[in-house]
Q: What sequence folds into this?
């Protein structure tokens, strides 16, 4: 064998090494920062977010106040840090409620027979006719404004998309070979559903939840900005955007930094969701 052939064999024999993208590393680091801000905000924020100092009102960003101060002299960075828990709680709760409702509709459509499948599909199509944020606004108009109502409204508006994806997963797993083998062996339908179908069909839930949290935070912040969610002086990103809107021309930092946190959180959520999708695809290719 020639030297060129030996080099070719050696190169071809190298094992594949999983590469980690810099965007994924930054998204993980930012997610850890958000988690730290939720669990121990006092360790991240230098000041009390509700401490009023009228003499320091509308101070621009500086070493003393990293994100500047608002109209009452409160430290904007501290309010952004303490608002992380409120914003993430709304996003996670809305995503959880949307996934729960979507899963219930998907199971009903996949295993309830043709009548239920037809009814659920038509209901999903009707809900898809409304833009998600418009559907959330409709729910708030009926139920009234507030953070709890905004959370449920965002969850309801995201449920149709989750239901359609999970229904397809359930039907695909239901027709698989190992489920048919379980039926032939005489296993009960409940055991087949709980042991074979649901664990395999719900594998994409983590990816869906990761992608959905960012979207839910954006929508919840939009509702708070419109005065339909959390209201000032609550330390919540959307409410801070609403409170800083009148001073946009003179104190840009009141809206720029809370808005930047919303954008970065949504981007980090999307990057992490896509990274999980690639991991699942790589695992499926190796099996």
A:
């Amino acid at each position: 064998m020639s030297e060129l052939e030996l080099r070719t064999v050696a190169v071809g024999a190298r094992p594949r090494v999983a590469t980690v993208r810099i965007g994924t590393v930054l998204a993980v680091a930012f997610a850890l920062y958000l988690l730290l801000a939720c669990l121990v905000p006092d360790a991240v924020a230098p000041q009390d977010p509700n401490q009023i100092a009228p003499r320091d009102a509308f101070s621009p960003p500086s070493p003393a106040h990293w994100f500047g101060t608002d109209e009452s002299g409160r430290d904007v960075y501290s309010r952004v840090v303490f608002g992380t828990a409120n914003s993430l709680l709304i996003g996670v709760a809305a995503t959880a409620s949307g996934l729960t409702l979507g899963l219930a509709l998907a199971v009903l459509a996949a295993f309830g027979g043709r009548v239920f499948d037809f009814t659920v599909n038509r209901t999903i199509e009707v809900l898809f006719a409304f833009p998600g944020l418009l559907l959330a606004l409709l729910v708030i108009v009926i139920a009234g404004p507030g953070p709890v109502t905004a959370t449920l409204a965002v969850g309801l508006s995201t449920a149709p998309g989750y239901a359609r994806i999970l229904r397809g997963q359930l039907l695909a797993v239901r027709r698989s070979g190992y489920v048919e083998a379980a039926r032939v062996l005489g296993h009960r339908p409940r055991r087949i559903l709980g042991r074979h179908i649901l664990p395999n069909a719900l594998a994409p839930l983590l990816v869906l939840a990761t992608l959905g949290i960012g979207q839910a935070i954006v929508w919840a912040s939009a509702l708070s900005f419109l005065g339909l969610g959390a209201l000032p002086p609550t330390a919540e990103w959307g409410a801070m955007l609403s409170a800083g809107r009148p001073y946009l021309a003179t104190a840009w930092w009141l809206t720029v930094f809370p808005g930047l946190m919303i954008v970065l959180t949504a981007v980090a959520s999307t990057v992490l969701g896509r990274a999980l999708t690639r991991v699942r695809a790589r695992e499926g290719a190796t099996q």
User: Anything to note?
Assistant: The CA atoms of residues 214 and 267 lie 7 Å apart. The chain has a mean pLDDT of 82.
